[in-house]
Specification:
Blueprint (H helix, E strand, L loop, with lengths): L14 H6 L10 E7 L6 E3 L7 E3 L1 H13 L4 E6 L17 H11 L5 E6 L12 E3 L2 E3 H18 L3 E4 L6 H11 L6 E8 L6 H7 L19 H13 L3 E5 L5 H10 L4 E5 L1 H12 L5 H15 L3 E4 L2 H10 L1
Parallel strand pairs: 1-3, 1-4, 1-12, 4-5, 5-8, 8-9, 9-10, 10-11, 11-12
Antiparallel strand pairs: 2-3, 6-7
Helix pairs in contact: 2-3, 3-4, 4-5, 8-10
């Protein structure tokens, strides 16, 4: 019997050969590290469901940002916790809120980081929803005006990129108009374009103290069963002026990342969200998995699907592991 001419195993014999022909190459250059800013000074409280992740005051945010920059991670994204909550999430746009103070502190420290800010109201509202409530319903248009004000306050503090995550219709256009009117036309918008109503956000809601006090977010976040709708959402956000679009969560929606990447010639980001992180950490602490191999495989899968940018709580560990390779 004649043996086949083609032997794919020839190029798998050694690590050097495998590396030479590897299609997806991990690096720190596409990583974004999420951080949670809270009021006060010298505050650093670990999130119980997310080992290694902390709620931190601006002075502590800066210290961790020094570490992040030193590891070669190019960007952070900041989420905020307010001193007080109200019906409209008014502290989201306050120039003295934790996110705005953290941005200013990072700038004062002259750290070489791209500073991205999450733009939403859920952490700031007393009801925990991402917009204004009337008669139990989330109102779209009044909400986007507040979101635009919050984005402007972040940019005035020094943010490089604003990232609306609320899933209100038209919020990208409202933010783009608000920034342009105030002479911030160079500031980019990273839109949570395809954000699904996912069970994978549970630990984040502890970290951001953003659990809805009634109902859920199904009326504005996407139905997990829908794929074609995601392409429509991305298209609309690009028409409104988004510069980067994001799919969230990452692992259950690798197919969506791939379809978006194939359809649109724009930068694509993906958010490796809290429960994806927490499940890995829990399994690793129980000795059930090899954490390093699992995490690097997850990061590879997200990039292989088409995301050039990955927001992940694993970013610091990934940077350390890649540095040893």
């Amino acid at each position: 019997m004649t043996f086949p001419t083609h032997r794919p195993r020839r190029l798998r014999r050694t690590e050097r050969l495998r590396g030479l022909v590897r299609e997806t190459r991990l690096s720190t250059s596409g990583l974004v590290y999420p951080m949670f800013a809270c009021p006060g000074n010298n505050v650093r409280t670990e999130v119980s469901s997310m080992p290694g992740v902390f709620q931190q005051s601006p002075d502590q945010i800066v210290e961790e940002c020094r570490e992040v920059a030193g590891l070669g991670i190019p960007a952070v994204i900041l989420f905020g916790l307010p001193e007080k909550k109200d019906e409209t999430g008014s502290e989201a746009a306050s120039p003295t809120a934790a996110v705005q103070r953290s941005i200013e502190a990072i700038r004062k420290a002259k750290l070489d980081l791209v500073v991205i800010t999450d733009v939403c109201l859920c952490e700031y509202t007393s009801h925990g929803h991402c917009g204004v409530i009337k008669d139990g319903e989330v109102l779209n248009d009044p909400s986007i005006a507040l979101l635009a004000d919050a984005a402007l306050s972040h940019v005035r503090a020094g943010a490089d990129v604003v990232a609306p995550s609320d899933m209100m219709d038209g919020r990208v256009a409202a933010i783009r108009q608000k920034l342009d009117e105030n002479k911030f036309s160079d500031v980019a918008i990273l839109s949570y374009a395809a954000k699904y109503c996912s069970a994978f956000y549970g630990p984040f809601r502890e970290a951001a103290q953003s659990t809805p006090q009634f109902g859920d977010r199904r009326s504005y976040q996407m139905d997990p069963a829908n794929a074609r709708e995601a392409l429509r959402e991305v298209e609309l956000d690009l028409e409104e002026g988004a510069d980067i679009i994001m799919v969230k969560p990452a692992l259950p929606y690798l197919d969506i990342i791939a379809r978006v990447r194939e359809r649109f010639d724009v930068p694509v980001a993906a958010y490796n969200v809290s429960a994806e992180y927490s499940m890995v950490k829990a399994a690793a602490r129980n000795g059930w998995i090899d954490e390093q191999r699992i995490v690097l495989e997850i990061m590879t899968s997200i990039q292989r699907a088409g995301a050039s940018t990955v927001l992940t709580y694993h970013a610091k560990d990934v940077a350390r592991w890649l540095g040893k390779c």
